[in-house]
Amino acid sequence: MTKLQNFLKGIIKENPTLVLVLGTCPTLAVTSSVINALGMGVAATVVLLCSNMAISALRKVIPDKVRIPCYIVLIAGFVTMIEMIMHAFTPDLYEALGIFLSLIVVNCIILGRAEMYASKNNVIDSAIDALGMGVGFTLALFAMSTIREILGNGSWMGISIPWLSENPISIMTLAPGGFFVFGCLIALVNKLTHGKGVKKKDFGCDSCPSAYMCGKRPAQSCGKDGEDK
Amino acid sequence: MKSLIIILMTSVLVNNYVLSKFLGICPFLGVSKKLNQAAGMGVAVIFVMLLATAVTWPIYTYILAKNGLDYMRTIVFILVIASLVQLVEIILKKYMPALHASLGIYLPLITTNCAVLGVTLNNINDSYNFIESMVNSLGCGLGFLLAMVLFAGVRSRLETANPPEAFKGLPITLVSAAIVALSFFGFSGVVDGLFA
Q1: DSSP state of B17
Q2: Which terminus of chain A is less hemmed in, N or C, by CB atoms within 10 Å?
Q3: Among positive and negative, which fits the CA dihedral A180, A181, A183, A187?
Q4: Helix segments in chain A, DSSP class H
């Protein structure tokens, strides 16, 4: 796989949000406005890039048995740094993202890439992988927040749109609209790719990066049967 | 007492963690296929939330906040929760194999669940005292269980439905989650109305 393909796979073929369906909580929660979505995307991308590089550099040092706690500590460290930086330089965005900024720690995309990619590949490849995935995540958030902000608030990045801003469908910026738009976007991606993206058998254990934690367990333990690890 | 009931009802019905705050979506979508699994997951989440709050609140108040280390809370909380859950799982496996068989299988999955970390951080951000934090955690856990069980019922109907090809699987599940979330809007104002 060339470096360009490695980068592009995160954006289209293995888009973390719309194809792999990871990190759903921030995707649904912060996309009520475009600015918040972009802030979240950039913050997660920076954490992903740093953690992927650090984990890849340390992959021969970290003992296999305690690798998950090690990854979590590394990721939590980077998240704390980003939190402090955003608190200092972009206080409005810090307030708007609120708890979801801290929750980047448990974002499945980051731990998932650490486990699936960075622990097996060199630093350069891991950095490219992280950038691709981060950009894919950001673009997905951008697309979703564009739909939600235009329909729900009649504005785009704070610029109000003439007719729509007088007749907003405000349910779109609320919780049900998040689920609805996300469902429709995934359906659209399914339609466009005709299932040519990464074959996802189900969205139970296969997509859950925590599955390694119950890897030794009976397969039905996490809602998926007849599927070995 | 009244304020505790308000906190409980608010976190169960109005600010439901799954359906209005978007925390813990992964297990909500992943483990809600069968009713018994959904209930098992819900009970495990309640248990871990209470346990995590009981441990992280004193750690934050008496160690971190006292020494000006409050910026360390994300790191400390996730580590404490992860090790605590592992410990409980080992104890359950050794001494209560029956309980472990029904509940323990979900424990490792929820270590890195954002609902658990979220509730511990929210308790601190909302500056609840210890009792209020425990009640809030109980409420969030109950709300999670309620959402899981309700949604498992909805999904059993989806199994027999025939949506358009592109909507099969996850998309139609999300659209039905939107409708369930919409139904929870009916609860907004209920708590204010009850205790006004």
Answers
A1: T
A2: N
A3: positive
A4: 3-11, 24-30, 34-57, 67-89, 91-97, 99-102, 108-113, 123-153, 162-166, 175-193
Domain count, chain B: 1
Whether B158 is in a domain gets the answer no
Which tens digit of pLDDT belongs to each residue from B83-129?
A: 888 888 888 888 878 777 776 667 776 776 788 888 888 888 888 88
Of B74, B125, B166, the CB nearest to A191: B166
Whether residue B101 lies within 8 A of chain A, CB to CB, comes out as no
- Shortest distance, CA B1 to any CA of chain A (angstroms): 28
- Residue B151, both tokens: 């949604």
ipTM above 0.90, yes or no: no
Across the A:B interface, residue pairs with CB atoms under 8 Å apart total 159
Residue A196 CB partners (closer than 8 Å, separation 6+): none
Residues 6+ apart with CB under 8 A from B162: none
B109 shares contact with chain A (CB less than 8 Å): yes
Structure tokens that stand for A229 in this block: 């690890």
Q: Taking CA B44 as the corner, what is the angle to CA B40 and CA B50, rounded to the nearest 5 degrees?
A: 150
CA distance B47 to B111: 12
B195 burial type by CB count under 10 A (0-12 exposed, 13-18 middle, 19+ buried): exposed
User: Which of A25, A69, A84 is the closest to B23 by Cβ?
Assistant: A25
| B74 in contact with chain A, both atoms CB, cutoff 8 A | yes
Both tokens of B167, joined, read 């909507």
Q: What are the Cα distances from residue A198, in Å, to A157, A191, A193?
A: 32, 14, 10
Host domain of residue B141: 30-153
> In three state form, how does the secondary structure of A4-20 look?
HHHHHHHHCCCCCCCCC
Alpha-carbon gap, residue B71 to B190, rounded angstroms: 36
Q: Are A93 and A35 in contact (CB under 8 A)?
A: yes
Strand (E) positions, chain B? Answer: none
- Give whole-number Cα distances, A180 to A171, A172, A173, in Å: 10, 8, 11
Tell me the whole-structure pTM to 2 decimals.
0.83
Give, as one character, the DSSP assignment of residue B24. S
Summarised one tens digit per residue, pLDDT across range A32-75 is 888 889 999 999 999 999 999 999 998 888 888 778 788 888 88
B164 neighbourhood in chain A, CB within 8 Å? 187
pLDDT tens digits along A115-126 = 888 888 888 889
CB atoms within 10 A of CB B189: 11
Does residue B25 sit within a domain? no
